[in-house]
Every structure is written in C-alpha cells, then in structure tokens.
Write a structure and sequence with these properties.
226 residues, alpha/beta, Rossmann fold, five-stranded mixed β-barrel, two-stranded antiparallel sheet, 6 helices, 10 strands, globular
C-alpha cells in the first residue's frame, strides 16, 4: 500500500520524519511518504492535487487542532470524520451567512451533504477507538468570544483547523481513500499561546501515527467505502 501523509508544517510530523530517517527505519518506510503543504486551504488543495498524480492508495492528513469543547483534552488524538468551511461567505452585521445561506452553492451538491463533507471510508479497529469529531476549517483561527460563540451556535463543530475542508474536498472529488488525524493542542478561545500544549499534542499524534502504521502494514488493513 502506498500511503501519502500530508501536514501543514514540518513541526507537526517531525517525530515521524525522524523515525523514518533513523538508522533503523520501520519496514514500511519505503511505502510511506510525508509531505509538507504549508498552512491554509489554498496550499493544502495545491499539494493534495500534486500528490494525487503519484497515484497513492491512501491519503492521510495529520496535524494539531483547537477544540471547541472541554471534553476534548489537550493531547487527545481524534479522527475527523466530517468537515466544512467556517468562514466561506459574507458578514451581515452581527450575522454570518455562508455560501449556502446566500444560495451561491448547493448544500447537497457533491461533495457536500447539508453543507458538510463526510469521509465515506471505513478504517481499522485502532482508528475506530479514537473520538470521531466534526471539523471546521477557517482561514483565520477564532480568537474572539463573539466569533467563537457564533461558530459554535451555527455549526456545532468539535475542532478547528486551517486545512481540513480543503483536504476533504480534493480527496472526495478525486475519489481517493483518505483519513484525517489530529491532536488537540488548545481550546478555541482568545489566543493564549503560552497555555497551548503543542509539544504534547505533537508527541501524542506522532506516537499514534507510528503505532497505527505498524498495524496497518502488519495486517495490510484495507480502506474501503462504507
């Protein structure tokens, strides 16, 4: 199986890269490639489309994220099973109207269902043990109470990132099996970087990735449509 892993920054997957480039690399090292897209939906979409020219059998997005809810603790690794854009539309006073509200796009036109994009591919038991969450993708991360309140009320998403929806959109449109794995580094709130648990999130994410890849190539678990 040929697996492409994509991350927004090298820091988010540095432990995995170190493992792959060590003096004793895993047996699956030649079947897994890691790619850095850059931050945001545009860079992500460009990178995914370039990688699809290499005919991978599985695309995996890996990175950190912010959590809207207290039950998702810092360091928690989650599987994002649904994504949508959180700032794709127009402000109208205190309201935000997304492109579906504005009737500029069909909320049920492929690859959307009710404005969301869902991952139709099933995964192995190890992944199914992770919290399954819905992600909101924004070009500007949320750090103001009014914005956070609006997004929570309008979309009721679990986590926030800057790349997820673009990754889902490209993979769904091209019909390539994919997975989205993230680790929580912080609560979505006013920016308090000193309180973020970034190092812990990266450590937990990469430990999980290595463990999962070991299992994936040991059993050659197929990724199939639900």
């Amino acid at each position: 199986m040929k697996v492409c892993i994509i991350a927004a920054t090298q820091t988010e997957v540095s432990p995995l890269l170190n493992h792959l480039n060590s003096n004793n690399p895993p047996a699956w090292s030649k079947q897994v490639s890691v790619h850095i897209s850059g931050v945001g939906p545009t860079a992500t979409a460009y990178t995914v489309m370039r990688l699809l020219q290499q005919s991978p059998e599985l695309m995996v997005q890996a990175g950190i994220c912010g959590a809207f809810h207290r039950q998702l603790k810092a360091g928690s690794v989650v599987q994002v099973i649904a994504e949508r854009y959180g700032d794709w539309g127009a402000e109208d006073g205190r309201r935000f109207l997304d492109v579906f509200d504005l009737q500029l796009a069909d909320p049920d036109g492929f690859p959307f269902r009710g404005g969301w994009m869902y991952n139709p591919y099933s995964a192995d038991v190890l992944l199914q043990r992770l919290p399954q969450v819905r992600g909101l993708t924004v070009s500007r991360t949320s750090g103001k109470k009014s914005t956070i309140s609006l997004l929570k009320k309008k979309y009721n998403a679990d986590v926030e990132s800057m790349e997820g929806a673009a990754f889902f959109y490209c993979c769904l449109r091209e019909g390539i099996p994919f997975l989205s794995l993230r680790a929580v580094s912080n609560r979505v709130r006013r920016r308090q970087r000193h309180k973020w648990k970034t190092e812990r999130a990266i450590r937990e994410l990469n430990a999980f990735l290595v463990n999962w890849l070991d299992r994936l190539f040991e059993f050659e678990s197929p990724i199939s449509a639900k």
